[in-house]
Every structure is written in C-alpha cells, then in structure tokens.
Specification:
The chain has 17 helices and 21 strands. The protein is of the alpha+beta class and 571 residues long. A hairpin with a 2-residue loop joins strand 7 (231-238) and strand 8. Helix 15 runs parallel beside helix 16 (522-539). The structure holds siroheme and iron/sulfur cluster.
Length: 571
C-alpha cells in the first residue's frame, strides 16, 4: 500500500483507533457490558459506527438533566444495511416490533434507502441486533469508514433492466463488506476469532480514510442523487438491454460553514464499462482512495478531495491501472427528475407497486396520522416486499392486482389515502433528522419541515404553483445529510432558528445551488422569496424549473456554492 503522507503530518486519531482495534473489536464488548453508564467511550463510539451504531443523547433533555446533576439521556441510533432499500414484509414486521419494544419507538427511512432506529438503550442493543439477525438483516458497515449502504433505484420489478441493476448493487454491497467477524462476535455471541487475525484484503487494517458511498441510477430518473456520491454507476440501456454503466467518482456534499477548504462537489464522469466490470472498477476506485485519501485530516479525507487535489485524469489512470480495465468514452445520458413515482403503477411482471409519500421518512403514530400502524397492517397481508427510496419515501412492491383494494382500504381506514395528493413542494421535500438526536445539529430540520412547507405552500398557492415539482431541502448543519446543496431551495442550519439559504440547483440533481443569504430566519426567507416565486410564475420559459430560472435570472454570476462565516454552537 503506498502512502503519500508527509512525515510531519500526524495521522487523525481515528486512524489509531482503527489500527489498534483488532479489526473493529476494540473494547466495544466490555463497554457495552458496563452497566454503570448509558454511554460508551469515544474510541468505542468511533468503532461502533462500523457496526452501524452511534451513541447519541436526547438533546431536548440535556439542560434539565444537567441541572439535576444526572447523566445525559443516552441512546443508540442503529442503521440497517439494506442494499437498494429492499425489505420483505416479514422483515418489516420484525423491525416494527423491535422499534416498538426496544427503541424510540419510530422507524426512520433515511436518505440512503434504509431504516434507522433511535433511542435504543445500551442494554437493548444486542437484543435489537439479534432480532434483526433472525430476520436476515444486519447493520454491518451501515456507518464507518467503509462502503456504506449501496443505493439503487427502487421498484426493480418494473423491468428486467431494473432487476439487473438491483442485483449489481446488491453484489457490490456484498463484495465490499468488511471481512472481520467482529460484528458477529460482539453482538451475536459468535465464538471469538483469536486476536482478530482475519485479513481485510480490500480494506487493509485501517479501512478507508473516511466514509464511502455508492449508488446506481437508471436515467431519466436521478432518484438516487448520483452526483452527490463517491462512486456512481449510470445504467446505459438500449432496447431494454443493459449495455453497461457510465462510472462517476468524487461526489460529496459535506462542508463546514466558513471553511472554504471544505465544499460540496459533484462527481466526475470517468467513462463507460461493461456490466460485468462493476466490482472490479468499484474495488479499484475504493482502493485508490484507501491508499491516497488524506488520513491526517478527516475534514479533507473524502474521495472528492483526493480527486480535487490530484485531478480526475490522474485518478482515472490509477483506477485503470489497478483494475486492468480501460474506460470507454462515456455514453450519452439524460436525467430529468429526482421525484419518486407516487400511487399505483403496473410492473413488467404484471404486479403493481404503490409509491407512498412519507414526509421526512418518519414512520410513527401521531393522532390523525397513524402511519406506523397502517404500514404494519399492510405488512401483515402484503405478499410482495417494500422498497425504501432515497427521498425517504416508500414503495409497496410486488402487489398482485387483487390485493390493491385491500391496501387502498387500509390506507383509507387510517386516513392516509391522501398522502400523495400533497403539493409538488411537499412531495419533493427532504429533511435530515437533526434535533433532538443528532449530536451535530446546529438548528432544527425534520421537526421544522412541516411548518416551513406550510409557509411556502401559501406563497406557491397564491402564485398558482401548488402542483409544480420544486425541491426544498433543509438540514440542521452543513454536513448535508438531506442533500440540501442539490435542492432548488436549500436551507442549511447555522444556529438555532438561522439557516444559510441557497438557490439555483437544477431539479434533476446535476448542478449545485448557490449561496443567497449566509444567515436568515425561515420567516425572513419567506419574505425574501415571495416576490421571486411570483416573478418565476410569470416569467419562466416553458418547462423551466425554479432552480434553473433562479440560476439564469436571479443569481449573480459570482455567487458561491460555499457557506461563509462561523457557525454558532448550540447545547
Ligand atoms: Fe449523514 C453524519 C444522519 C445521509 C453527510 N449523518 C451523520 C450523523 C450520523 C451525525 C453524527 O455523525 O453524529 C447523523 C445522525 C442523525 C440522527 O440522529 O439520526 C446523520 N445522514 C443521516 C441520515 C439519517 C439523514 C436522514 O435524515 O435521512 C442519512 C443516513 C443515510 C444512510 O442510511 O446511510 C444521512 N449524510 C447523509 C448524506 C446523503 C447521502 O449519503 O446521500 C450525506 C451527504 C453526502 C456525503 O456524504 O457527502 C451525509 N452525515 C454526513 C456528514 C458529512 C460527511 C462529509 O464527509 O462531508 C456527516 C458528519 C461526518 O461524517 O463527520 C454525517
Ligand atoms: Fe445531523 Fe447535520 Fe446530518 Fe442533519 S445534516 S442529520 S444536523 S449531521
């Protein structure tokens, strides 16, 4: 393995944690068994991420507990590994039960097509992992410096090509899994491998410098937001045949407010490969990043910086050298949309799927909106499976025609049959989790999204744009978990009640938005955007999206994609 680290630069602390962990074991088992505290050590927390687990605390309770001199309200977040977002009905029932009995009790669909539990008490973590294991689910590599949950277009049974692409995504996810048995030993009581001596042929002992994300897309839909990912495969299809993939690398959205060394970046196009070369190219991209990624500074450690620093031609040549595959020139492709299909759609195999909009992907029961109960009832009668989408929505898939009315009736019984009849803005909105669980949130996100949407919906109604698909995304900090830099209207949290406002991304996810205000309240943003939205309604060209219009008409040529200023701290 080559290393280009200048001798005077110290490795990031996590590099030491990984190197000394005996392939991700560390002292996790001991820390989990310690009943004197609800938390674990910082080193164990960093290692736990590779097992799909984070320690968090309920930030709403911090001040109260502090005043009472009590420990923070610790709980674990657990992220399931679910390539392409596919879960069976049986798995749904198991996850729903585990959430109800051992977690917050909601289930949360993430922006990478999987489930998260929140608020699992330390003593219950093993029970949750074991429960998942019995349903053939795990959380291995759902977080950590490895290849994360692989995204793919939901609804494979719509065509043979979709099915093939899903299989490639699943195969790459399996191929790039860490080989350590640490997860099985710690959480499933498998017998210890002496000294953790197994080999990690692809990752090496210190895994990757940072997280690594892969997705697959099938144009014209860019429902996976391909250009935001470290590694992307764009299916090239002709006459219903999958010819291969255009490969992209080096996307990523996280940044720090006020640090121009960090930035959101769209992936570069490397070229075309045949379909049987996915794993070989994936491995070459991943190992190049393993060897050349910056292990001294975790804020500069993603593949996007390796490529930005060394150049895409260098990177492409290195990948070709390692894989022995020469990229052919990229084939033409065109993305038009990011939106999930809603309602009933027939599939190639004669079954149906129902696309259900779920705001922020939060599956819980609230008065008048018993989503968790309704979906559990559907899972109990559903003979197909479920697909989670990268826009935090759900597809109830593989439904035989005769079962459609049964599913419709369950949704109607619970008053959830109108969820898809929402405004175009709401159907396209994303938020990250943020408060109260996310330790990095500077501002609210998921909890504020309904209120933010109501305010903008009033403006859109007045402008006659209620049904227009406009993407609004909000996050509680600039890490970008709700991919706000690719939203036509992007709000990025800076401080309680304050957001950096961005406009002008393309609706199809191929252009980043740009900074309009470094710090603004939601109400002031509504005031600022009202005349702009009204002008857009009157002046836009035929078919011109809000982001494209803002980019052409409103934004000065030198508007930046970066954020500026220093972020405020919150408790
Ligand atoms: Fe994320 C960290 C939630 C998708 C960029 N993300 C976090 C943590 C774990 C906070 C932490 O480190 O303590 C958040 C947990 C919140 C909570 O309470 O649940 C968190 N990220 C999420 C999820 C759940 C957001 C959601 O509302 O759905 C998404 C889970 C995805 C999954 O299933 O794997 C999620 N995160 C993303 C995405 C979008 C994507 O991957 O398509 C991004 C931007 C793309 C990218 O990676 O560049 C993203 N999350 C980050 C970053 C910044 C990484 C960077 O290198 O710039 C962090 C912070 C970090 O890694 O240090 C972060
Ligand atoms: Fe937390 Fe920030 Fe990610 Fe939101 S964007 S979940 S606040 S890390």
């Amino acid at each position: 393995m080559s290393s280009e680290i200048a001798p005077e630069k110290k490795l990031a602390a996590n590099e030491g944690y990984k190197a000394e962990s005996h392939h991700l074991r560390g002292e996790i088992a001991k820390d989990i068994a310690d009943t004197s505290t609800g938390t674990i050590s910082e080193v164990s927390n960093q290692l736990c991420k590779f097992h799909g687990l984070y320690i968090q605390d309920d930030r709403d309770l911090r001040n109260i507990l502090k005043k009472e001199g009590r420990e923070k309200a610790f709980g674990f977040m657990l992220r399931v590994r679910l390539p392409g977002g596919k879960a069976t009905s049986q798995q749904w029932i198991v996850l729903d039960t585990l959430a109800s009995q051992l977690a917050s009790p909601s289930l949360r669909i993430t922006t990478r097509q999987t489930f998260q539990f929140h608020g699992i008490l330390k003593g219950n973590v093993k029970k949750v992992v074991k429960g998942m294991h019995e349903a053939l689910l795990d959380s291995i590599a759902a977080c950590g410096d490895v290849n994360r949950n692989v995204m793919a277009p939901p609804n494979p049974e719509r065509s043979d090509v979709l099915q093939q692409v899903y299989e490639h995504a699943r195969a790459w996810s399996e191929y790039a899994l860490p080989k350590t048995r640490a997860y099985h030993e710690i959480w499933l009581d498998e017998e210890l491998v002496a000294g953790g001596e197994e080999k990690e042929p692809m990752y090496g002992d210190t895994y990757l410098p940072r997280k690594f994300k892969t997705c697959f897309a099938i144009p014209p839909s860019n429902d996976v937001d391909l250009f935001s990912q470290d590694l992307g495969f764009i299916a090239v299809v002709e006459n219903d045949t999958l010819l291969g993939y255009n490969v992209t690398a080096g996307g990523g959205l996280g940044m720090n407010h006020g640090n121009v060394e960090t930035f959101p970046r769209l992936a570069d196009l490397l070229g075309f490969i045949p379909p049987d070369k996915v794993n070989a190219i994936g491995e070459a991209v991943l190992t190049t990043q393993r060897d050349y990624g910056d292990r001294t500074n975790r804020r500069h450690a993603r593949l996007k910086y390796t490529i930005a620093d060394r150049g895409v031609e260098w990177f492409k040549a290195e990948v070709e050298k390692r894989s022995g595959i020469t990229f052919a020139p990229a084939r033409p492709f065109h993305f038009t949309t990011i939106e999930d299909p809603h309602g009933w759609h027939e599939c190639a195999d004669g079954t149906w799927f129902y696309g259900l909009h779920i705001l922020s992907g939060r599956i819980k029961d609230i008065p008048g909106w018993p989503m968790k109960t309704a979906l559990r009832e559907i899972a109990e009668i559903h003979t197909g499976d479920f697909r989670l989408t990268p826009s935090q929505n759900l597809s109830i898939s593989g439904v035989p025609a005769e079962q459609k009315p049964v599913i419709d009736a369950i949704l109607a019984k619970h008053g959830l049959d109108k969820e898809n009849d929402r405004s175009g803005l709401r159907r396209n909105a994303l938020s990250c989790v943020a408060l109260p669980t996310c330790g990095l949130a500077l501002a609210e996100s998921e909890r504020w999204l309904p209120g933010v949407l109501e305010k903008f919906e009033a403006v859109l109604d007045e402008a006659g744009l209620r049904d227009d698909a406009i993407s609004l995304r909000i996050t509680g900090c600039p890490n970008g978990c709700g991919r706000p830099s690719l939203a036509e209207i992007g709000f990025i949290g800076r401080a309680p009640g304050k957001y950096a406002l961005y406009l002008g991304a393309s609706y199809n996810g191929t252009r980043l938005n740009r900074l309009v205000s470094p710090s603004i309240t939601i109400d002031d943003a509504v005031v600022l955007l009202t005349p702009i939205i009204k002008r857009y309604a009157l002046e836009r060209n035929d078919g011109e999206g809000f982001g494209d219009w803002c980019d052409r008409v409103i934004l000065p040529a030198d508007a930046t994609t970066h954020s500026v200023g220093t972020p405020a701290e919150v408790a």
